[in-house]
Amino acid sequence: MIEEIIIYSTISGGVYALLALGFTLIYGVSGVVNLAHGSFYMLGAYMFYVLGPKVLELPPILAVILAVVFVGVVSSILYRLTIHPVLGDEVGVMVVTVCLALIFQQLMLLVFGPPNVPVAPLIEGSVPIWGVKVTYARILAFAISLVLFASLWIFISKSKIGKAMRAVSQDREVAMLMGINTEKLYMLAMATSSMLAAVAGIFISGSTSGVAGAWIWMYPLALSFSIVILGGLGSIKGSLIGGFIIGYAEQTVIIVAPEGGQIVSVVPFTVMVLVLLLRPKGLFGKRIEMED
Amino acid sequence: MVKSYIRRAYSSFTAHVFDIPPRLMAFLFLLVLLVIPVAGLNPYYLSVMIYANVLAIFAASWDLLVGRTGQISLGHALFFGIGGYSTALLFKFFGLPTWVTIPIALLIGSSVAVLIGFPCLRVKGPYLALVTMAFPIILHSIVKWTTLSHIFEGEYGIRRLPAFFASLPIRQQRIAEYYLTLILFFAAAVIIYKVANSKTGIVFVSILDDELASKACGINVTKYKLMSLIISGLFGTLAGCLQAHLLKVSNPSMFLLTWSFTPIIVTFLGGIGTIYGPLVGAYIYYILDKYFLAIQLPRLCKYFGVTLPGEFEYAKLLIFTLIVLVLVIKWPRGIARFTTDKLEDLEEARDLDERGPRIWKRYERKKK
Amino acid sequence: MKEKAIIGMVITALIIVAMFAALPTKGQFVGQIKIGIIGPVGLPHWSPAGMKEASEMAAEEINAAGGVHLADGDYEIVLAFGDEKAYPTPNPTDAALEMERLITIEGCEFIMGGFRSEVTGAMIEVAMDYETPFFINGASTDEFLTETIAVDYERYKYLFRVNPINSTMLFKTIAGAAQFLLAAKLLPLYGHDLGGPNPQVKVAVVMEDLKWTETMYFYLTNPAVYPAVLGPYANVTYAGRIPDGTTDCSPWLTDVINSEARLLIHIFSGVTGVPFIIQWSAMNVQALPLGINVMAQLQTHWDTTGGACEYEGMLSTLGTRTPVIPGVTDVFWDNFLAKTGGAWPIYTAYGAYNGMNLLVEALEATGTKDKDTLLAHFEDPAYESSATITSPRTKFTSIHDVFCNEVGPYWTEGYARAQVVQWLASRMETVSPADQIYSKKWAIPPWMYSLITDLNYDGKVDIKDIATAAKAFGTEPGKARWEKEADVNFDGKIDIRDIASIAKDFGKSVTLPLP
């Protein structure tokens, strides 16, 4: 029981954090609350299906890379065309991103039809850890999530662009005065954020459900915003810790009360509201910074 | 005596309505809306407009909260669902008639507003938006929960609610429902408009402009924010009650994200912060989808001998959302405000400053 | 001369016209009967969209045969389609408006459809507002009839359900199949002394947390009740409820593994059913899945799960090309495939076809379009029809539900019932009812029991197994000596290949019961 909780919570927490990472990144840099984040998750999974072993039969690694790059390109184009004109207007951004989410949902329905499409895991088989059966695909998803976290962390703290991102998130105008091209930076942040969502889509879908459908954008979106709010909008550390908190809370409830049913899907949001009662800005609420 | 009174009323009416183009427009729009059912329309069109009226009430309530106070809510479906379920539960367990259940539901709705006000008003900006989004999601799961299904009846929802005018034949029922929802919308709009133009309303806008400065002026910001949340929740609940009795069903879908997003899209389409914008937006929303795309386009295609593929059903929402997206990007200030601006430009030939879409322009001018 | 020729031509022409006018008006319609089809018809070739194709097929066939013969002439069937807009998120407002459009703008006199129960409730109210006969096809919820027509007959009298049978009977079908499976196959393999009066098999129950499963959950998990439902050999060791829409079922499946259950009763109506089966396979759960999985009836299920759904047993109206009525059901199947380019029909397609045929038969019997006469016809205690293709006989209960009286492993009277099918080599094979010509034997996955040639489940392949096969040698389904257990390779005949594979395993044995 305890082993089950620890193993499942850790793995889910890690991948949930990956889900939230992109959401927090784009908010932290450009202040965009991207309600289409779940759609990029969905798009990633669908693109992997198209490129992957079932349809175009590309090698899986290549398929993952191409799908992720495709999502990044699509998202930066969409950012330029739709979000950019309403930037600075919080409600406008939300309306535009909601519209984008609905458009993606209908597009997927039109192109692929309502039945689910398979999203194959990259590796098969399972291994018992402490007597709990865990598939390799889940372990891979967990590992990828940690690797991406670490590399984003290093990118933000060490690279020039990362420093520029931090500067812009602290004060946009001063950053512009210092000669930073904020527009390019925003597009880059959007592309990175949606690519992270796409990676999450491919690996989470592949390792758990094994399918993608036009409905899969909603729960990831709701989950990622509850993690992000919990950890603090714009905080990378926050989304990591928020992911683990939500993962532990959810999996504990499932395993302790398997007959709870619907109550399981309430857990992340309840935890979030409770945390906000205590800390109105989340656990680590500030804009992208190295919280050291 | 009477004659002079009528004359006075008439002259004040001309001064307050006819001389101001947007109000004249609104007045003409109202007249058109009032005579529509007399034209002997097919009840389907009336139904479409009935739901448009309900959506207009719902969106106007969201507009008060967001357009005036700047408290961005992404979870207005909460009030919609609370309204639907309160009236349905009161009917189910106590057998109360509709005119009793709806006022009680309104009370419940405003109490819920107070209740969620405590966690919500502590947080600001996007935090608030995303936190409010969580409440309807939580309630959606709770009403679907089988353990409580003897109360909420799970995913089917509470069915067989009484219609408003059950004794009339169906066509007359539609006409009566149309007038009921239209009158309720105008009542709601007038109340919201009055609130918005009262001293309280000025405080609301000051909170929108600068919360910190308002605080510095000695305004109890939390009190006013809570007040706007309560008024907004009240009318959101009203819309939910109406929807439930019109459909005769209140089911968990009322808590879905869709119902949180629809008022946003509609308000933004019409013009945020205007109160009348949501009506325009709601009518555009329903007429575009349920009239042009559902009826006229297939007819046109049939006329030209084009067969629509089955996928068209799903392309409809896509086309609709694309249109909305383009409108939102093209006219971020909303269609209704765009039109009135044009009219005022013609009349006053005055340059209008282009501030953010959230600021209500008329009020701004008054301030100068 | 010229004038004469012209006059002659005119007269000839007149005579020809008069001759044509005097001909019997066969093929000429005096009017139309407009039928509205409402459901997820928006996307063709999706199986619930089969509702659209199947009703079009029925309408074409009826019109080609001269239309509906009423007392005052022949009527043409015209269809109008409405989408209930329930996918991916249900919206009762849109569904109600679509229903109203069909009735008022399109002028439909009869409506068929209603797939998702979330929106069907609202659609029923609109149809009853306009007193339009509504034949539910798709939603199996009991309450749509027990809480409407049974309570307020005057308002809801025009409400019928043609397909499927109600969810209580669906559940009983599953319970009956589980009883049969436990007694015949799982008990010899996995029966252990678990403290009861007789050996028992451990059973796990996992279902989605929605109201329609409430009664099923109670019957399957309450220790005082489930022996009566599942029979004396079941011991329910695990019960879990998954919120609908979940994509990660592994925590529950881990519990199933830990509970050592060998039969996994799963009940899903929504999207979760597919990930559930994929994870069941990926985690290598040693329990045979049996239950209700609406998404698993789709033809795409096999490809979507990558074949992981093999051995999944679940409810379906019919299996793959199941010839319930030879020459009718299989012909429908072939025509449907030809029309859709290879997509399989599922229950709503059968229901739409059945509904159209039942309606037209009743209209012709009464000779009028009058709905009250039609109502009296359907409510006549002597009413019974054989116009359906999924069961030889059809009638309605007192609350206008399609009548069903058999849920066990046999089907003798022929009224509507659901079948239990098993996914096997990309086909759905009927396993219950077990007494039909087309029924196949219940396959136990080889990774649960490796000796597939042990026909009598005694733990060893011996001369008894060979004798069983030899006795049935050379037979095909329908023959007197046919024994479906001996058809080891599922090719529909018992030949030397079956006997050879049994003989190859001769002497192999395992100790029963397995853990």
Q: Can you describe what's shown?
A:
The complex is a heterotrimer of chains A (292), B (368) and C (515). Chain A is built from eleven helices and four strands. Chain A is mainly α and 292 residues long. Chain B has a two-stranded antiparallel sheet. Chain B is globular. Chain C has helices spanning 2-22, 50-64, 92-105, 117-129, 143-146, 153-156, 167-190, 214-221, 226-230, 250-259, 273-282, 301-304, 329-340, 347-366, 371-379, 463-471, 496-504; strands at 31-39, 68-70, 73-83, 110-113, 134-137, 159-163, 201-208, 234-242, 263-268, 288-293, 313-316, 419-424, 427-432. Chain C has three domains: 31-164 and 325-379, Response regulator (Rossmann fold); 168-316, Response regulator (Rossmann fold), CATH 3.40.50.2300; 449-515, Orthogonal Bundle (Type 1 dockerin domain), CATH 1.10.1330. Chain C is globular and about 105 Å long. A seven-stranded mixed sheet of chain C has the order 8-7-9-10-11-12-13, with helices on both faces. A six-stranded mixed sheet of chain C has the order 2-3-1-4-5-6, sandwiched between helices. Chain C is built from 17 helices and 13 strands. The chains are: A mainly alpha (292), B mainly alpha (368), C alpha/beta (515).
Quickly describe the structure.
The complex is a heterotrimer of chains A (292), B (368) and C (515). Chain A has 292 residues and is mainly alpha-helical.
Instruction: Give the amount of beta strand of chain B, in percent.
Output: under 5%
Identify the CATH architecture of the largest domain in chain C: 3-Layer(aba) Sandwich
What is the number of E strands of chain C? 13
Q: What would you call the shape of chain B?
A: globular
Strand order of the largest sheet of chain B: 1-2
What is the count of helical runs of chain C? 17
Structural class determined from secondary elements of chain B: mainly alpha
Structure summary, number of beta strands of chain B:
2
Rounded to the nearest angstrom, the radius of gyration of chain B is: 21 Å
As a percent range, the share of helical residues of chain C equals 25-40%
The level-1 CATH class of the largest domain in chain C: Alpha Beta
Characterize the largest beta sheet of chain C: strand count, sense, and whether it forms a barrel.
Answer: 7 strands, mixed
